[in-house]
Amino acid sequence: MIVSEPMIRARGLRKSFGGFEAVKGIDVDVRRGEAFGFLGPNGAGKSSTMRMIATVSPATAGELRILGLDPATDGPAIRARLGVCPQEDTLDNELNVFDNLYVYGRYFGIDKATVRERAEELLEFVQLTDKRKAKVEELSGGMKRRLSIARSLVNRPDLLLLDEPTTGLDPQARHVLWDQLFRLKQAGVTLVMTTHYMDEAEQLCDRLVVMDKGVIAAEGSPRELIEEHSTREVAELRFGVSDDGNTHELLAGKLEDLGRLEVLPDRILVYSADGEEVIAKTHERGLEPVAVLVRRSTLEDVFLKLTGRTLVD
Ligand SMILES: Nc1ncnc2c1ncn2[C@@H]1O[C@H](COP(=O)(O)OP(=O)(O)OP(=O)(O)O)[C@@H](O)[C@H]1O
């Protein structure tokens, strides 16, 4: 492979299911060594895209190259160099923790001694050494996910695909996983992940695309996306709800000149470089929010601006 070749290159990539187009012609370039994310809500087309990249679902149209190879003709060669961690854990419940790694490694044709050594290393890496003899069903959700990640690393992949790596995990388990993914990134593994968590995308991704309804709405580093599509700060204002339930729309009319507004069912967001000033002016106008909060803009704000919706419905 030529070194400058992108790890993934897609042009006009499409995926249809019958008459329904889940991915509507996207362009993607993933560079060696980066952590790249597809951020979007449920149904955005992230998993459909990942499955094409994983070479388990053929593209309906467009061009796709993985590690410089064509999935239509070079599937096995690509898969030998990919690690895939699907959204649902597909561990073998019949086998213990160690054997899940060992048997998977043997599928790749790795010799017994090497696969044993790697399995031990990987258990150490995902902090499951003391569970090596445990049955899969005895593991917590976070441990299962870590074992899935360990398994996807058995063949020492150049490119690791993670479909919603921390969905369904509790906050502590998510942080443990983030640490491990960060260490993999530092070790030079190219990571490609989907997520609908903006904090995950901000923590882990060097670059990401914001995906919605099968198209890419924006692309860049988390910081670039926030700078381009949002303001430095956001003032969140909550008012008591009136009998007509219309309070936020009515109040928004009195705040319009303070910055761009997003009126959500439970709060008004005012986008401004100076959130405290927004709050001061709100009070000056005799408006009394029951709660206020000033925070930095996040990718959630970027998504809201681009699509008019929140990431998690
Ligand atoms: N095998 C299939 N047959 C028919 N429709 C499908 C199939 N797979 C996905 N879809 C549809 O394609 C759209 C995109 O689904 P996809 O799973 O790619 O989205 P996603 O962004 O990954 O969402 P999620 O976070 O729920 O996985 C959805 O409307 C989904 O119902």
Automatic annotation (TrEMBL):
MF-aspect GO terms: ATP binding; ATP hydrolysis activity
Can you tell me which family this protein belongs to? Belongs to the ABC transporter superfamily.
Q: Tell me, in one coarse class, where this protein mainly resides.
A: membrane
Supply the source organism for this entry.
Nocardioides piscis
Q: Which UniProt keywords apply?
A: Antibiotic resistance, ATP-binding, Cell membrane, Membrane, Nucleotide-binding, Translocase, Transport
Matching InterPro entries, A to Z? AAA+_ATPase, ABC_transporter-like_ATP-bd, ABC_transporter-like_CS, ABC_transporter_ATP-binding, P-loop_NTPase
SMART domains on file:
AAA
Q: What is this protein called?
A: ABC transporter ATP-binding protein
Q: Which GO terms describe its biological process?
A: response to antibiotic
Q: List the PANTHER family.
A: ABC TRANSPORTER ATP-BINDING PROTEIN, ABC TRANSPORTER ATP-BINDING PROTEIN NATA
Task: Give Gene Ontology CC terms.
Answer: plasma membrane
The ABC transporter domain extends over 8-238
The family database entries (Pfam families) matched by this protein are listed as: ABC_tran
Spell out the subcellular localization from the entry. Answer: Cell membrane
Membrane topology (UniProt): Peripheral membrane protein
Domain of life, per UniProt, equals: Bacteria
